[in-house]
Amino acid sequence: MQHFGSFRLDTADECLWHQGTQIALPPKQYAVLRYLVEHPGRLISHDELLDAVWPETYVQPQVLRTYVLELRKILGDDARQPRFIQSLPKRGYRFVSPVNVTDGPHETRVARNAGIAGRVEELNTLQANFNALAQDKRQIVFLTGETGIGKTALLDAFCRTVESMPSAAAVRGQCVKGFADREAYYPVMEALAELCTPPHEERMRPLLARKAPSWLAALDRQTPNGMTLTQEHTMSDLCSALEAMAAETPLVFMLEDLQWADESTLNLIGALAHRRTPTRLMLVATVGPRNGETVELKRLKHDLRVHGLCAEISVGPLRRAHVEALVRDILEQDVLPPDLATFVHVSSEGNPLFASAIVRHLQSQRFLVRLERNGTMRWEARVSLREIEAGVPEELEQMIELEIEHLSPHEQHILEAGSLFSVAFPAWAVAAAMEEDVAAIEEACDALARRLSLVKRAGQDELPDGTCSAFYVFAHGLYRDVLYQRQTLTLRARSHVRIAEQLRALFAGCEASVAREIAWHYEAAGQRARAITILRDAALLAARRQAHGAATDILEYALRIAEDLHVNERECTTKRLHAELMEVKREAYDVEGPECAEKQT
Q1: pLDDT in tens, 243-265
Q2: When comparing pLDDT for 24 and 65, which is higher?
Q3: CA 542, 544, 546 angle in degrees (round to 5)?
Q4: pLDDT at 271 exceeding the cut of 90
Q5: Are 313 and 122 spatial neighbours (Cβ–Cβ below 8 Å)?
Q6: Among the listed residues 121, 112, 28, the one whose alpha carbon sits nearest the alpha carbon of residue 66
Q7: Left if phi > 0, otherwise alpha if psi is -120 to 50, otherwise beta: which for 175?
Q8: Is 375 in a helix, a strand, or coil?
Q9: Which of 131, 140, 349, 413 qualifies as a FRET site for 311, CA 20 to 30 Å off?
Q10: Selected residue with higher pLDDT from 430 and 228
Q11: pTM score, two decimals?
């Protein structure tokens, strides 16, 4: 469904709805309206519209005028003051109304007209905030989410919607990492500079000159940036100037990566939020992961939330259907190779930046190749995507490495030790791998979780001796993969053995309960014989307790490990394991009957 004004365009049933009433449109009339609605905010030339609606057919451009006139009558639109279809003489048309997309019952396409997938709800929320400006209610909105989750793409889509309206203005400023201590108001000045250039210059520059001359002087380099802009009265001047600009036209002031903002910029946001003057001003700021926020930013957000002066939109991972839509857009084809969407979704964990990088990586590694089928070039999988280990895309590996290199050598070693686990890693295991004190490691991990988006605390485990140990998870599996590959084989093997030995010490007397985990670490260290010994002991204990199903699973796991033993060892070990497995199955038959034995087989 495409929503604009009080209308809904049903792309499944190819009709128009108005306040619950269905309006049937002739096919070509519907096609013209749909094309305009699906490309809001930009000029659609006569030739483009003709090619879209009448492909491979010559049609006089005057025909378009007839259809547009009829559509205007249906929509109640006025060509002189258009709310929906704007005519640009001798050029074409522009659909100027904001368009919101929702998934109808027969439609699974998601927000692709905005250039992004799966952000319908977030776009609608931003649009609702913008609509509140009509009642002179100022809006402060934070878009929060992890790196690469799509905050900027969402802001781009919203910005296109705002800029499609002739009477609205949207400007942006970018906070830069490391600039907070060097230049006050850096992102604010960048956004102001955009307001003082075409197409906004004629209206906005005089207002800034009248209400906040020191700011205009700074923009014109008449005084050094930041030299006089930290005084309280100049902040008030700028607030007054922005409100005066918003009185002329709805104004959206956007600041990106607020976690890197200077304190002066944050103070300005607080001042704007607390003022009571009615205004059509909307400030939207993107914010990275919460554990990357400065103390000043946390205080600002808390203050505004407590007083009900802001809204927060959390941008989360994409669902599989939305990742599939994203991959279709990247490859520019509707039918994808088998398992591709699932592979990208699982590997990226729903992160759009990671998903895009993974698709490009599959192309560069020729797991995806472009082939001709029935006269059409298509991307196809060269091998089964279920079986490949594609590795970490180079561009993501470099990005992650840059984050890691900012840490101290000791912090890097802690995270590398944590990467020895496939999912969550406990502090005691990191301490064992590094041969350090558990309490010190836990304290260091907590400090990392507070500062970085790489890792977060996930809970705590109670150990057999009654003590508790915190455990942590990486924000994304790709972080863990990079950290794991940074270590030499020798270092990894040594660390895995230490963890296995610590597990045996912690669970002395009940090692069987963690036999698989111990064996996994021995196997990762290349000590397969020790892994098999642990598993055989656990299987024997399970069989004595008549847990024949568990014993069978353990022995089958041991057989898989045995396949990688040296030739001389392999035959003897597998023969013994098969004999033990047959004995367990025979006992299961004697004790539990043929049905249970058959299930184990």
Answers
A1: 999 998 899 999 999 999 999 99
A2: 65
A3: 70
A4: yes
A5: yes
A6: 28
A7: beta
A8: coil
A9: 349
A10: 430
A11: 0.69
For the residues 165-184, what does the mean pLDDT come to?
A: 85
What does pLDDT average to over the chain? 86
CATH of the domain at 46: 1.10.10.10
Domain CATH code at residue 129: 3.40.50.300
Which of helix, strand or coil describes residue 317? coil
Residues 376, 437, single domain; the answer is: no
310 lies in the same domain as 324: no
Residue 551 and residue 521 share a domain: yes
**Single-letter amino acid code for the residue at 401:** E
Q: Which of 51-65, 104-118, 257-271, 380-394 has the lowest mean pLDDT?
A: 104-118
At 309, list the tokens: 């002066």
Residue 378 bridge partners (DSSP): 371
C-alpha–C-alpha distance, residues 342 and 553, integer Å: 28
| Listed residue (41, 34, 31) closest to 7, CA to CA | 34
Whether 496 maps to a domain, the answer reads no
In this structure, the answer to whether residues 405 and 360 fall within a common structural domain is no
In a domain, 274, yes or no: yes
Looking at the 3D structure of the chain, how many domains does it have? 5
> What is the total residue count of the chain?
601
Q: Are 226 and 183 in contact (CB under 8 A)?
A: yes
Average pLDDT, stretch 145-167?
Answer: 88
**Which residues 6+ apart lie within 8 Å of 585 measured at CB?**
548, 552, 597, 600, 601
Structural domain boundaries, residue 59: 2-99
Q: Which residue has the tokens 């096919």?
A: 27
